[in-house]
Amino acid sequence: MKRSLSQLPRPAIAPSLLASDFAHLADEIARVEAAGADLLHLDVMDGHFVPNLTIGPVVVEKVRAVTDLLLDVHLMISEPARYIQAFAAAGADNLTFHAEVASDPRAMADRIHELGCEAGISINPDGPMERIRQAAPHIDMVLLMTIFAGFGGQKFMPEVLPLIRTVKGFLTTQRLEVDGGIYPDTAAQAAAAGADVLVSGTGVFCAPDGDYTRAIAALRRAGGKASD
Ligand code: DX5
Ligand code: ZN
């Protein structure tokens, strides 16, 4: 089955597995899938581009085996070119690399497309925005960090809102994803500014009473209302 970002609803809700219980990953995935998740966000960190370490292709491959949801792989790594083939082979649908470490984003996007995946480009709040603008015609999604990449559970940075509007202004059909500190209130703000894929880790997996359905519905409602 071919999954594409273009098939996602607006807004689309992307639970970030970083906040899930990794000891029960298949159960967590089944639960967010049943709760209405539109895609899964997987955070790859190398201890170099960001100080934290997380998962690699072996985990993506195991996740692929237990779900049909679109796998949205966020590469917070210094050398994405070295690893994109392994992540594509593991079953990723979308590979997002960071603009900060891609001097030729178009070449990276082309390579990702050759591997049969869609391509996203991401940027931290203080990153090289011009690179995003130049890359836009060649990518399928822009991922604007609404925190500094590296850890879950951080506070949404409202100063990114004008950047969301700016990026929205030069996109055509590409998706605009936000990531970091997304709860219903910040989802509404981000969606009003133009975001249409909402990543939420803590906001879903640490929901009160463990009610993932309610958490995802609240994000969808907040994100939808704002973009009406
Ligand atoms: C952090 C990651 C995020 C993280 C978001 O660098 O890119 O995807 O899981 O976590 P929350 O939703 O808890 O801010
Ligand atoms: Zn992420």
Keywords:
eight-stranded parallel sheet, 39% helix, globular, binds D-xylitol-5-phosphate, TIM Barrel, 8 strands
How does this model look, in words?
This protein has 228 residues and is of the alpha/beta class. It has one domain: TIM Barrel. The chain is 39% helix and 19% strand. It contains nine helices and eight strands. It has helices at residues 25-34, 57-66, 80-90, 105-114, 129-135, 161-170, 184-193, 202-205, 212-227; strands at residues 12-15, 39-45, 70-76, 94-98, 118-123, 141-145, 175-179, 197-200. An eight-stranded parallel β-sheet has the order 1-8-7-6-5-4-3-2. The mean pLDDT is 97. Bound molecules: D-xylitol-5-phosphate and zinc ion. Residues 16, 41, 43, 74, 179, 199 line the site of zinc ion.
Small ligands present: D-xylitol-5-phosphate, zinc ion
Tell how many strands the DSSP assignment holds.
8
Which word captures the global form? globular
Give the full name of the CATH homologous superfamily. Aldolase class I
Order of helices and strands: EHEHEHEHEHEHEHEHH
Radius of gyration: 16 Å
- Count up the helices: 9
Task: Bin the helical content.
Answer: 25-40%
- Oligomeric category: single chain
Helix- and strand-based class?
alpha/beta
CATH topology value: TIM Barrel
Please give the order of strands in the largest beta sheet.
Answer: 1-8-7-6-5-4-3-2
CATH architecture: Alpha-Beta Barrel
Write down the CATH class: Alpha Beta
Instruction: Estimate what percentage of residues fall within beta strands.
Output: 15-25%
Q: Give the biggest sheet.
A: 8 strands, parallel
Q: Note the gap between the termini.
A: 31 Å
